[in-house]
Amino acid sequence: MKRRIPLFPLNAVLFPGGVLPLRVFEPRYLDMVSESLKTGSGIGVVLIREGEETGAAAETHEVGTLSEISYWHKRPDGLLGLTLRGEQRFRILSREVLPSQLIMAQVELLPPARPCPLDNTYQALVDMLRQIMGQLEPPYSKLVPDYKDATWVSARLVELLPLELAEKQKLLASDDARHRLDEIAAHLSGMDLL
Question: Are the beta carbons of 139 and 71 closer than 8 angstroms?
Fold first, then answer.
C-alpha cells in the first residue's frame, strides 16, 4: 500500500513496536506534529544518510518506520515533548522538499513482520534484553514485552544496544528476525559481551 507522509529525519532508528521520545522545536516539525494529531496521518521516522537534524532537509536512507504520536506535552523549557510509537516499516518511492524544508514522501508500506517463535539458541540474548528492560524508565518500561517472539526481541535489542547507526539501519531493512539476532550475537561476541 502506498501513502504520502511527512518524514522526520533523525539520527535514530525506530522499529515497529518500539518507542522514541523526542523534543520538537523547529516550526516545520511543530506543524508536522499538529497535522498528524489532527488527521492521524502518521510520521515517517527515517535515519539521516547525509545532513543534520536541523536546518536544510537532510538526505535519508530509503527504509524507515511509520509512527504514530502516542504521547505529547509542553515541556518546562517551552519545547514540545512527544513519544512516537513505531507501527510499520516503509520504503521511500519519491520525496519532495517543501519550502519549509519539511520532506514529504510517497512511501510503500512493507508487509508487517509475522511473529517468529524463538528457540533456546537465543536465550542469552533474551536474558540480556530482560535485564536491560528491567532498568529502563518510561516510555520504554511501558512496552509490553514478548520475549517469545524473535521479531520483537531483535527489534528491541537493535534499538537499545549501542550499535552503529548504519548497522541498526541495515537490520531495520532486513525482513529476517533470526538473521537480526545472529548479527546482534556476532556483534556482542566480538565485543566479548556474549
Answer: yes
Q: What is the pLDDT of residues 64-116, one digit of tens each?
A: 999 999 888 888 887 778 999 999 999 999 999 989 888 899 999 999 988 89
Domain 120-190 maps to which CATH number in 1.25.40, 2.60.40, 1.10.4060, 1.10.10? 1.10.4060
* pLDDT tens-digit series, residues 14-65: 999 999 999 888 778 888 888 888 888 899 999 999 877 777 788 899 999 9
C-alpha span between 102 and 142 (Å, rounded): 31
DSSP-based three-state secondary structure for 81: strand
The count of other CB atoms within 10 Å of the CB of residue 8 is 26
SS3 at position 112: coil
Q: Contact, 64 vs 58, CB < 8 A?
A: no
On the question of a common fold for 2-109 and 120-190, the answer reads no
Measured in whole angstroms, the distance separating CA 26 from the mean position of its chain's CA atoms is 20
What pLDDT sits at residue 184? 95
Q: Would you list the domain boundaries of the chain?
A: 2-109, 120-190
Task: Determine the CATH number of domain 2-109.
Answer: 2.30.130.40
Q: For residues 16 and 79, give the distance between their C-alpha atoms in angstroms, rounded to a whole number.
A: 26
Cβ atoms 47, 169 nearer than 8 A: yes
